[in-house]
């Protein structure tokens, strides 16, 4: 069952796209589960020297109505992040990120990526954010008060 469907980007800057998520659930679903949220990948730094493929690192902070999620993860050297997706249900949010290779190639090396996501319009009842990359849960973090 599809809960949210992505629309076209609202605007584009040099390194970020802003996407509005459209709620497809019936209006009988409680408002806390029909949350609209915006997610933006505001920073992506790629480091290919000595990338070890160690565990991912995730941290979150809340300030001025935004939740900032900082993620250090590892991607195939030929891959770049695609459009992030955010799903909110009750007190849990899931940030999903697919990756792709613009050239269609894959390599046998890994590059570390330090990414920063900014999430707006997420209610304060969200206590946990899960980070999912290419369909695999790589970690979670408690959302700060």
What does this structure look like?
- This protein is mainly β.
- The protein has one domain (4-142).
- 0% of the residues lie in helices and 60% in strands.
- It contains no helices and ten strands.
- The chain has a six-stranded antiparallel sheet, with no helix packed on it. Strands 6-7-9-10 form a four-stranded mixed sheet, with no helix packed on it.
- The radius of gyration is 16 Å and the shape is elongated.
Number of helices: 0
Q: Percent helix among the residues?
A: under 10%
Spatially, the strands of the biggest sheet line up as 1-2-3-8-5-4
Computed over alpha carbons, the radius of gyration is 16 Å
Poorly predicted sequence stretches spanning 5 or more consecutive residues: 1-34
Our estimate of the beta-strand percent is over 45%
Overall shape: it is elongated
Report the major sheet: 6 strands, antiparallel
Query: Element order, helices and strands?
Result: EEEEEEEEEE
**Topology, number of strands:** 10
Structurally, the number of domains stands at 1
- End-to-end gap: 31 Å
Topology of helices and strands:
Blueprint: E1 4-12, E2 17-23, E3 38-47, E4 57-63, E5 66-76, E6 80-89, E7 92-100, E8 110-120, E9 128-133, E10 136-142
Features:
four-stranded mixed sheet, disordered N terminus, 145 residues, mainly beta
Give me a quick take on this structure.
The chain contains no helices and ten strands. By secondary structure, it is mainly β.
């Amino acid at each position: 069952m599809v809960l949210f469907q992505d629309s076209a980007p609202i605007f584009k800057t040099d390194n970020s796209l802003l996407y509005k998520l459209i709620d497809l659930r019936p209006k009988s679903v409680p408002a806390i589960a029909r949350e609209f949220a915006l997610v933006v990948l505001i920073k992506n730094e790629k480091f290919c020297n000595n990338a070890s493929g160690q565990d991912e690192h995730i941290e979150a902070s809340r300030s001025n109505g935004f939740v900032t999620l900082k993620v250090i993860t590892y991607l195939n050297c030929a891959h770049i992040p695609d459009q992030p997706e955010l799903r909110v249900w009750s007190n849990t949010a899931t940030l999903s990120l697919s990756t792709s290779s613009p050239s269609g190639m894959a390599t046998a090396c890994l590059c570390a990526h330090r990414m920063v996501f900014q999430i707006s319009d997420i209610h304060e009842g969200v206590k946990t954010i899960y980070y999912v990359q290419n369909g695999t849960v790589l970690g979670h973090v408690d959302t700060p008060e």
